[in-house]
Amino acid sequence: MSDQNVVRRGCLTVFLVLLALVGALIGWVYLSLRPDPMPNVTKAAHSPTARAADQLITPQMDAQLAGLKAALPWATPLGTGVSDLCRTVVNPTGEDFLARETWSPVTCGRTVTLYAAFDGDLTARLGQLDTALGAAGWQPQNLSNRPGDHGLTGQLAYLHRPPDDPTPAEVAAAAARPNTVDLAYKVPITDPTPYPLPGPSTVDRQPLPIGGRVYVAQAPLVPFVDDGVAVHDDHSPTDYYLAWQPLPRADLAAAYPAHGAVLVITLSIGYKTTPPPPAPTPTPAVDPGYSPCYSGSFCP
Fold first, then answer.
1. How far separated are the first and last CA of the chain, in Å rounded?
2. Cis amide leading into 257 (omega within 30)
3. DSSP state, residue 13
4. What confidence tens digit (pLDDT) does each residue in 76-124 have?
């Protein structure tokens, strides 16, 4: 065999060895960084913890919205939407490129939405709605802290308020803004699973959302409310629905021209599917008056 063939064969061997090492490295990186197996979302949604939480919050949510509905006799009901969704997501790895992705614990969220239409003076109706929401314990989370900006009536006034030292054009522009308000609320609902989620992520330690939202719009506007249809129709394997009763936005728009405005009241509560962590074992108290050393014994 010539020296040239020996060199060629040696180079080929080195190349194949390097290729095998690169392939092994790629395989190792893939196996190391791929996410853990996805949690069984269906099983978690039907866990005893999830069932107990759902049974606790459902009557509270229904009672809240039924009370508001009874307090607003001038509002014509259009329907009710319900979504009770359990899901898991891949936790973000942040800036750590070589961090292994993990799945979040399965959590659920129940959302009930009341749709209605009404007529009459908008400011007066918003004042009545403010009174009903306040009586139910709903606390508005207005972005502005100025006097008079509280609640839905304050939000509408804030919407039409011109800037300081306005020009005539700015006054006209503020007055011409469409009559639509959107306001978040704190709602007096018992958190069914107040303990942290299992996991090292700080996200896992955050409480799940409990709150309401109120949207009001005057014709011809329709409040932009996420009816959840797009998410539901995606049929993602990470999602499982315990309840699903949508009211498409088209049905909401159908309230015009028979009515002059539409109202949407949404209540959402998140809950966990895993039981609380076990309580730490208490350390037995030591009697300070007792000593294990007796007369004549060696006490270190």
1. 81
2. yes
3. H
4. 999 999 999 999 888 766 555 556 677 888 999 999 999 999 999 999 9
**What is the 8-class DSSP label of residue 219?**
T
CB 274 within 8 A of CB 48: no
pLDDT of 120 reads 95
Give alpha helix (H) positions in the chain: 3-33, 41-45, 48-71, 122-135, 151-159, 168-175, 229-233, 249-253
pTM strictly above 0.70: yes
CA 242: distance to chain centroid? Answer: 16
Taking residues 7-15, what's their average pLDDT? 61
> Domain locations in the chain?
31-143+183-272
CA pair distance 68, 25, nearest whole angstrom: 62
Edge-to-edge strand list for the sheet holding 107-118: 139-140, 180-186, 210-218, 261-272, 107-118, 76-87, 239-245
